[in-house]
Amino acid sequence: MSDQVVLTADTAPDAVDDTPPSAKLVLTVLAHEGALTQSRLATETMLPTRTVRYALKRLEEHDLVDSQISFSDARQHVYSLNDDLFARAETRDARA
Question: HTH marR-type domain: which residues (predicted)?
Answer without folding.
Answer: 18-75
